[in-house]
Amino acid sequence: MKTTIENLKFPCEFKKKLKMKVSFGNLNVQFINGRIIKFNKTNLSIMEPHKIIISNNKAILIALLYEDIKHIDENGYEYWLARELMIALEYSKWENFHKVIKNAMVACENSNYNINYCFPEVRKSIISGKGKESYIIDYKLNRYACYLIVQNADPRKEVVALGQTYFAVQTINKLLNVLL
After folding, report:
1. What number of other Cβ atoms are within 10 A of residue 84's Cβ?
2. Which of 3, 38, 81, 167 has the fewest CB atoms inside 10 Å of its own CB, making it the most exposed?
3. How would you classify the pairing of strands 70-72 and 60-64?
4. Dihedrals φ, ψ of 167, to 5°?
5. Which pLDDT value is given to residue 35?
6. Phi and psi at residue 38, in whole multiples of 5°?
7. Cβ(64)–Cβ(166) under 8 Å?
8. Number of C-beta neighbours around residue 152 at 10 A
9. Digits of tens for pLDDT over the chain (180 positions)?
């Protein structure tokens, strides 16, 4: 199947701010542009988010810009689509990622949250190369659902391990802001 690739560019202001901040820590920063891969003769596309590589002599941190795959609904609420998050977390098969989603749903339900609010199922229309229309399952995830998915994903994947660390640090920062 033939594809068309559209490269995305980082916002210049963001790059300037980040370069300035990492210069104080004697760190190097590398920006890898995201891209949209469109499958010709279908209405399917995949969005790969931007990546930032921040490094020094001892460690490398890869941060995905989840803001690039964030959507805002008609009421102003933010959400992420599971199939886009799947690509960001470097899962290649929906079947494997769907198991992670199901585990995250169990954690959500056991925490007394409404899974229909955090993981509402949506259907997406796709058109095959032969012109046949069918529907695939996706989920419209809130931020908590994304957190649970990252916590239930495969920690052997570097991007997942870094995502788990990111959420742990963000949780500590939120707690400190509340306490101080």
Report:
1. 21
2. 3
3. unpaired
4. -65, -35
5. 87
6. -105, 130
7. no
8. 19
9. 788 999 988 778 878 877 777 676 667 778 888 888 888 888 888 888 887 776 665 445 545 556 678 888 999 888 999 999 998 888 999 999 999 999 999 999 999 999 999 999 999 888 877 888 889 999 999 989 999 999 999 999 888 887 787 776 666 666 666 665
Handedness of CA 76, 170, 58, 152 (dihedral sign): negative
Three-state secondary structure string covering the chain: CCEEEEECCCCHHHHHHHHHHHHHCCCEEEEECCEEEEECCCCCEEEECCEEEEECCCCEEEEECHHHHEEECCCCCEEEEHHHHHHHCCCCCHHHHHHHHHHHHHHHHHCCCCHHHHCCEEEEEEECCCCCEEEEEEEEECHHHHHHHHHHCCCCCHHHHHHHHHHHHHHHHHHHHHHC
Q: What is the pTM of this model?
A: 0.66
In single-letter form, the type of residue at position 163 comes to G
Strand partners for 61: 54
What is the separation of C-alpha 92 from the centre of its chain, rounded to a whole number of angstroms?
14
Give the C-alpha separation, 42 to 22, whole Å: 42
- Comparing C-alpha atoms, which of 7, 3, 66 is closest to residue 33? 7
